[in-house]
Input
Amino acid sequence: MSTLPELTETDVARWVGSTSLGRASSYVGSAVFNARRVGNVFKAECQGTMPAPYRVQVTVGKRGITSADCSCPVGDGGRCKHVAALLLTWLDDPEEFVEVAELETVLEQRTKEELIALVRMMIARHPDLETILDLPTPGSASAEPVDPNFISRQVRKIIKGHNYGDYGSAYAASQELEELLRLGNVYAEDEDANNAATIYETLAHEILDNYDEVYDHDGEVISVVNSCVTGLGDALDTIKDPARRQEIFRTLYDIYLWDINYGGIGVGDEAPDYILAQATAEEKQLVAGWVRAAKPKGGPYSHWKTEALGGFLLDLEAESLDDEAFLRICWETGRHDDLVTRLLELGRLGEAEEAARQVEDYRLINIAEIFIAHNHEETAERLIRRRLSTTEKTAFSGNFIEWLKARAEKRSDWTEALALAQQLFWNNPILPGYEEVRRVAEKVSMWESLRPDLIKRLTHKNNLSMLTEIHVTDHEVDAALETLDKLKSRKGAYAYMYDTLSINVARVAEQTRPRDAIRLYMEQVEPLIDARGRENYKIAAGYLARVRKLYKQLGEVPEWDALIADLREKNRTLRALKEELNRLSL
Output
């Protein structure tokens, strides 16, 4: 024990964070069991929300906690409440941790007969372990190749053994699949890269082939595939046989292509990087051939799929493509950003502009920025203006106007910026747009003359909600009350809008029109109480607290006392409401 660092609860909090530490208290003592210490490593099991307990492990060093891990869904990196529970258990009762020797040491001390007996006991407890006996022993000089069919059977058995859609089924499946993944890691650690790669390849292929049978909402199963990608990338460091390398490259490419066809959910994101980093020039050409032969299966986002493959192809053939071949691939696969960039680098401005005219609205601003980066500001703005003139009023047209306004401000053309700000506001009259018009108008001293026309136009359009918001913002209390009262007559269609605005008006009316503020607050209190629910009671109590303050300012405390007494009497059976009122001493 003396060789271990002195840990404190502060050390635990620093490692797991205050949130995990707070959640761990209910686990200490009751949920942590089978606690043991192997040198400077603490191990235990912790019963969480899943039927099977989580495996928890913490390593400590001279400077405290150095690493940790937990098999729970968020335990990668060891910052979860289960790790905190293990550490708190150690702090509370270190004697609960049984000191045991390293596994290798224990096994080496056993006779052959004892080891056989141990294996029998393990298989009796976990019958699935018997299948591992069919595998070659890692580290053995005479190790046979791993049978991929064995791995395939295990994966299918795991996936079919969990009911699709059941809560926790994907997590439970991922835990069993990770056992196979760890088996591959054991081969890798024993420098048997071929058998490790066989396990990674087969595991990834079988998971993806059967993925529709898994409800992998949080991506636990996909994380196993991504670990296989990492393992395959590492295996390429040592595997030199051309045929075997080709098989691995094909698996990495298949994983990458599966993700593209599936719609891009984050499977094998690192696969292209491993291929580009590990492949020779000849191997890159081989993979490029697969990419050229691939055609997305259609469906949603087929253009995105084609573009993604085109980008990978450009990377693979970067050292061998001449300019015309590069441009041709860009045209064929819709790589417009790359296309315009290369054309501008070649000084072919006219072609670049023509290519830009063909892109979709949502991509044009990014293309315009490429022109600006190559010192073609006028062309960029011309492209946006031209598209804006032919585009119907959509979200993209607003983006175009906003972009042009930013460009105008950058060159201090405040007159144009103001015209564009007004255009944005009238396309979508909202308070931030109003405030933006004011900001820009003040730059050219036009706000005082512009505002009356803006108010007049909103009045003509009968936009009472916008007018009310403006009057509130500008602290025009009487005007805000007037437009709010007009809006109230249309409350049926604008109920939520009216309720929100009335509270905003009440807040600004408190100083100069306190009785109107009281009226507006009380309009909201009774409906909130009638709607029931702790949260509604809490909001209602908050409004009542402001009403009490206003009555006190008016010197009408008896009126307030009568109001609150009547309200309490009417709702005397609502315990939660009473609690919220008492909390604010109402």
Summary: The CA atoms of residues 494 and 523 lie 15 Å apart. The mean pLDDT is 89.
